[in-house]
């Protein structure tokens, strides 16, 4: 390669960067980061509403993204990676198109259901499963929480008395 062809390549690269900007080069070099930027916007800002939405979805699906603050930190990256592992996606920790689509799908089918779940429904499912929640009063009282913990323990789940995604996946089978 001659001196002039090397100079030509450098000039060509400089022209591409100046005309297209760093985002284009970044997308070419880092496909995952590029897709994430297209889907979520700038991930380096102090607060990004799209990242906050991502964190809320992850949290409602039983993953731990840390504080819901609209910033991608270590815990959010870990939650993304764990989600990808659980759903057989490429587990690089970045939100690519496949990850985003699957996250939306799971959130709309499971996450929103959990958010709308009432204590009365939980009590009915517990009763149908053979765990007495006490009176069917529509409140998450002491008896309901104790019945829920017993149910969780019987299913090999973490017995914390909270209906998260793992508990819901099993408990919903008992809804009348």
According to CATH, what is the class of the largest domain? Mainly Alpha
**The CATH architecture of the largest domain:** Orthogonal Bundle
Q: Write down the CATH topology of the largest domain.
A: Muramoyl-pentapeptide Carboxypeptidase, domain 1
Briefly note the structural class of the backbone.
mainly alpha
Average pLDDT level: 84
Rounded to an integer in angstroms, the radius of gyration calculated over CA atoms is 23 Å
Quaternary structure of the protein:
single chain
The helix tally amounts to: 9
CATH superfamily of the largest domain: PGBD-like superfamily/PGBD
Low-confidence stretches: none
Q: How many separate domains make up the residues?
A: 2
Q: Largest sheet, if any?
A: none
Tell how many strands the DSSP assignment holds: 0
Task: Tell me the span between the first and last alpha carbons.
Answer: 75 Å
Percent strand equals under 5%
Overall 3D geometry? elongated
SSE ordering: HHHHHHHHH
List the helices and strands and how they pair.
Layout (H helix, E strand, L loop, with lengths): L2 H18 L1 H8 L1 H10 L8 H12 L13 H13 L10 H20 L2 H10 L13 H13 L10 H7 L5
Helix pairs in contact: 1-2, 2-3, 4-6
What can you tell me about this protein's structure?
The chain folds into two domains: 3-115, Muramoyl-pentapeptide Carboxypeptidase, domain 1 (Orthogonal Bundle); 117-174, Muramoyl-pentapeptide Carboxypeptidase, domain 1 (Orthogonal Bundle). The protein is elongated. It is built from nine helices and no strands. Helix 4 (49-60) packs across helix 6 (97-116). It has helices at 3-20, 22-29, 31-40, 49-60, 74-86, 97-116, 119-128, 142-154, 165-171. With 176 residues, it is an all-alpha fold. The longest helix has 20 residues, at 97-116. 63% of the residues lie in helices and 0% in strands.
């Amino acid at each position: 390669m001659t001196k002039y062809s090397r100079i030509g390549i450098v000039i060509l690269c400089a022209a591409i960067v100046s005309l297209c900007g760093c985002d284009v080069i970044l997308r070419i070099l880092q496909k995952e980061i590029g897709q994430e930027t297209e889907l979520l916007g700038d991930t380096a800002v102090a607060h990004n509403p799209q990242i906050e939405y991502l964190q809320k979805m992850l949290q409602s699906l039983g993953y731990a993204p840390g504080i819901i603050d609209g910033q991608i930190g270590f815990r959010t990256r870990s939650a993304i990676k764990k989600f990808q592992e659980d759903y057989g996606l490429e587990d690089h920790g970045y939100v690519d198109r496949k990850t985003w689509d699957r996250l939306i799908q799971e959130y709309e089918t499971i996450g929103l259901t959990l958010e709308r779940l009432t204590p009365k429904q939980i009590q009915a499912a517990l009763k149908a499963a053979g765990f007495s929640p006490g009176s069917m009063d529509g409140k998450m009282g002491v008896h309901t929480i104790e019945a829920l913990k017993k149910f969780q323990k019987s299913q090999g789940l973490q017995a914390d008395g909270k209906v998260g995604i793992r508990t819901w996946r099993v408990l919903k089978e008992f809804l009348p």
